[in-house]
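Subject: histidine--tRNA ligase structure
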Amino acid sequence: ALEGVNLEANGEEQKGLPVGVGSVAAGGRYDELVGNFIGPTGPKGKEKRQDVPCVGVSFGIERLFAIMEAKMQIEQMQVRTTETQVFIASAQKNLLRERMKLCGQLWDGGFKVEMAYKANPKLLTQLQYCEDRLIPLVLIVGERELQEGVVKLRNVKTREEQGNMSMSKSSYTQYNRKNWEDADFPILCQTCLGSNPYLRM
Protein backbone atom coordinates (compact mmCIF):
# COMPACT_ATOMS: atom_id res chain seq x y z
CA ALA A 1 0.00 0.00 0.00
CA LEU A 2 1.08 3.59 -0.53
CA GLU A 3 2.55 5.37 2.47
CA GLY A 4 3.28 9.02 3.17
CA VAL A 5 2.71 11.58 0.45
CA ASN A 6 0.89 10.24 -2.60
CA LEU A 7 1.09 11.87 -6.00
CA GLU A 8 -1.56 11.67 -8.70
CA ALA A 9 -1.72 13.11 -12.22
CA ASN A 10 -5.02 13.89 -13.89
CA GLY A 11 -5.61 14.81 -17.51
CA GLU A 12 -6.88 18.33 -18.02
CA GLU A 13 -10.29 18.64 -19.60
CA GLN A 14 -10.10 20.32 -22.98
CA LYS A 15 -12.94 21.92 -24.87
CA GLY A 16 -14.19 19.60 -27.59
CA LEU A 17 -12.29 16.58 -26.25
CA PRO A 18 -14.86 13.79 -25.79
CA VAL A 19 -12.68 11.75 -23.43
CA GLY A 20 -12.71 12.19 -19.66
CA VAL A 21 -10.40 9.57 -18.19
CA GLY A 22 -9.55 11.03 -14.79
CA SER A 23 -6.26 9.92 -13.27
CA VAL A 24 -3.51 8.96 -15.73
CA ALA A 25 -0.63 8.42 -13.26
CA ALA A 26 -0.08 7.89 -9.54
CA GLY A 27 2.84 7.18 -7.26
CA GLY A 28 4.43 7.45 -3.83
CA ARG A 29 6.27 5.36 -1.27
CA TYR A 30 5.88 1.57 -1.19
CA ASP A 31 8.09 0.71 1.80
CA GLU A 32 5.98 -2.18 3.13
CA LEU A 33 5.19 -3.65 -0.27
CA VAL A 34 8.65 -5.05 -0.98
CA GLY A 35 8.99 -6.43 2.55
CA ASN A 36 5.83 -8.45 2.08
CA PHE A 37 7.38 -10.29 -0.85
CA ILE A 38 10.93 -10.96 0.39
CA GLY A 39 9.83 -12.62 3.62
CA PRO A 40 11.02 -12.20 7.23
CA THR A 41 14.71 -12.20 8.20
CA GLY A 42 16.64 -12.69 11.45
CA PRO A 43 17.43 -15.50 13.94
CA LYS A 44 15.04 -18.40 14.20
CA GLY A 45 12.13 -17.50 16.40
CA LYS A 46 12.93 -13.80 16.12
CA GLU A 47 12.24 -13.26 12.45
CA LYS A 48 11.08 -9.80 11.48
CA ARG A 49 9.74 -8.45 8.28
CA GLN A 50 12.38 -6.42 6.51
CA ASP A 51 11.50 -2.85 5.61
CA VAL A 52 12.85 -1.84 2.20
CA PRO A 53 12.53 1.88 1.39
CA CYS A 54 11.27 2.40 -2.15
CA VAL A 55 9.16 4.64 -4.32
CA GLY A 56 7.12 3.84 -7.39
CA VAL A 57 4.86 5.28 -10.03
CA SER A 58 2.31 3.79 -12.40
CA PHE A 59 0.83 5.12 -15.63
CA GLY A 60 -2.53 4.38 -17.20
CA ILE A 61 -1.29 3.57 -20.71
CA GLU A 62 -4.76 2.81 -22.06
CA ARG A 63 -6.08 6.09 -20.72
CA LEU A 64 -3.20 8.03 -22.26
CA PHE A 65 -3.79 6.38 -25.63
CA ALA A 66 -7.50 7.17 -25.40
CA ILE A 67 -6.65 10.86 -24.96
CA MET A 68 -4.17 10.79 -27.86
CA GLU A 69 -6.64 9.09 -30.19
CA ALA A 70 -9.37 11.58 -29.32
CA LYS A 71 -7.05 14.55 -29.99
CA MET A 72 -5.96 13.07 -33.31
CA GLN A 73 -9.58 12.68 -34.39
CA ILE A 74 -10.38 16.28 -33.50
CA GLU A 75 -7.27 17.66 -35.22
CA GLN A 76 -7.72 15.23 -38.14
CA MET A 77 -4.16 14.04 -37.76
CA GLN A 78 -2.87 11.00 -39.62
CA VAL A 79 -0.13 8.66 -38.51
CA ARG A 80 2.35 7.21 -40.97
CA THR A 81 2.53 3.45 -40.61
CA THR A 82 5.56 3.09 -42.87
CA GLU A 83 8.91 4.84 -43.36
CA THR A 84 8.81 4.40 -47.14
CA GLN A 85 9.95 7.55 -48.96
CA VAL A 86 9.40 6.55 -52.59
CA PHE A 87 7.02 4.03 -54.15
CA ILE A 88 7.83 2.58 -57.57
CA ALA A 89 4.64 2.12 -59.60
CA SER A 90 3.98 0.94 -63.13
CA ALA A 91 1.25 2.05 -65.49
CA GLN A 92 1.34 -0.99 -67.78
CA LYS A 93 1.69 -4.74 -67.47
CA ASN A 94 4.86 -6.85 -67.59
CA LEU A 95 7.12 -4.29 -65.91
CA LEU A 96 7.88 -6.19 -62.70
CA ARG A 97 11.56 -6.65 -63.53
CA GLU A 98 11.97 -2.96 -64.40
CA ARG A 99 10.32 -1.91 -61.15
CA MET A 100 12.60 -4.20 -59.18
CA LYS A 101 15.70 -2.76 -60.83
CA LEU A 102 14.58 0.78 -60.08
CA CYS A 103 13.98 -0.20 -56.46
CA GLY A 104 17.48 -1.62 -56.28
CA GLN A 105 18.94 1.58 -57.67
CA LEU A 106 17.20 3.68 -55.03
CA TRP A 107 18.07 1.23 -52.26
CA ASP A 108 21.71 1.57 -53.26
CA GLY A 109 21.27 5.33 -52.86
CA GLY A 110 20.12 4.85 -49.28
CA PHE A 111 16.44 5.60 -49.83
CA LYS A 112 13.52 3.72 -48.33
CA VAL A 113 11.69 2.39 -51.36
CA GLU A 114 8.75 0.07 -51.82
CA MET A 115 6.84 -1.47 -54.71
CA ALA A 116 3.93 -3.81 -55.32
CA TYR A 117 5.15 -7.37 -55.75
CA LYS A 118 2.26 -8.47 -57.91
CA ALA A 119 3.23 -9.00 -61.52
CA ASN A 120 0.61 -6.63 -62.94
CA PRO A 121 -0.86 -4.37 -60.26
CA LYS A 122 -3.39 -1.70 -61.22
CA LEU A 123 -2.05 1.84 -61.15
CA LEU A 124 -5.04 3.15 -59.20
CA THR A 125 -4.52 0.46 -56.56
CA GLN A 126 -0.85 1.43 -56.22
CA LEU A 127 -1.67 5.12 -55.84
CA GLN A 128 -4.38 4.38 -53.27
CA TYR A 129 -1.88 2.29 -51.32
CA CYS A 130 0.45 5.29 -51.13
CA GLU A 131 -2.32 7.65 -50.04
CA ASP A 132 -3.47 5.28 -47.30
CA ARG A 133 0.07 4.95 -45.92
CA LEU A 134 1.13 8.57 -46.48
CA ILE A 135 4.03 7.64 -48.77
CA PRO A 136 5.10 11.06 -50.12
CA LEU A 137 6.51 10.24 -53.58
CA VAL A 138 5.51 7.90 -56.39
CA LEU A 139 7.79 7.21 -59.33
CA ILE A 140 5.66 5.95 -62.23
CA VAL A 141 7.21 4.05 -65.13
CA GLY A 142 5.60 2.71 -68.27
CA GLU A 143 6.68 1.33 -71.62
CA ARG A 144 6.74 4.78 -73.21
CA GLU A 145 8.76 6.24 -70.34
CA LEU A 146 11.33 3.47 -70.60
CA GLN A 147 11.65 3.89 -74.35
CA GLU A 148 11.99 7.66 -74.18
CA GLY A 149 14.25 7.70 -71.13
CA VAL A 150 11.84 9.75 -69.05
CA VAL A 151 9.98 9.25 -65.80
CA LYS A 152 6.80 10.58 -64.21
CA LEU A 153 6.78 11.71 -60.59
CA ARG A 154 3.73 12.21 -58.42
CA ASN A 155 3.39 14.11 -55.17
CA VAL A 156 0.96 11.92 -53.24
CA LYS A 157 -0.27 14.69 -50.95
CA THR A 158 -1.00 17.28 -53.65
CA ARG A 159 -1.50 14.76 -56.49
CA GLU A 160 0.68 16.98 -58.63
CA GLU A 161 2.50 15.11 -61.38
CA GLN A 162 5.65 16.01 -63.25
CA GLY A 163 5.90 13.97 -66.42
CA ASN A 164 8.33 13.53 -69.29
CA MET A 165 11.27 14.44 -67.08
CA SER A 166 14.49 13.49 -68.78
CA MET A 167 16.77 11.31 -66.71
CA SER A 168 19.71 11.27 -69.11
CA LYS A 169 21.55 14.18 -67.47
CA SER A 170 23.55 13.38 -64.35
CA SER A 171 24.57 16.89 -63.28
CA TYR A 172 23.47 16.17 -59.73
CA THR A 173 26.18 13.80 -58.60
CA GLN A 174 25.76 14.12 -54.85
CA TYR A 175 22.73 14.41 -52.65
CA ASN A 176 22.17 14.82 -48.93
CA ARG A 177 19.63 12.17 -47.97
CA LYS A 178 18.74 13.98 -44.74
CA ASN A 179 17.21 16.83 -46.74
CA TRP A 180 15.55 14.73 -49.42
CA GLU A 181 12.04 15.89 -48.53
CA ASP A 182 13.02 19.51 -49.20
CA ALA A 183 14.42 18.76 -52.65
CA ASP A 184 12.72 19.23 -55.97
CA PHE A 185 11.58 16.08 -57.70
CA PRO A 186 14.15 16.41 -60.53
CA ILE A 187 17.03 16.62 -58.07
CA LEU A 188 15.84 13.53 -56.23
CA CYS A 189 15.46 11.40 -59.33
CA GLN A 190 18.42 12.67 -61.31
CA THR A 191 20.63 12.01 -58.33
CA CYS A 192 19.42 8.48 -57.65
CA LEU A 193 18.46 7.26 -61.10
CA GLY A 194 20.69 9.17 -63.48
CA SER A 195 22.89 6.13 -64.12
CA ASN A 196 20.02 3.67 -64.51
CA PRO A 197 20.22 1.98 -67.93
CA TYR A 198 16.42 1.91 -68.26
CA LEU A 199 16.38 5.71 -68.15
CA ARG A 200 19.17 6.30 -70.68
CA MET A 201 17.70 4.54 -73.70
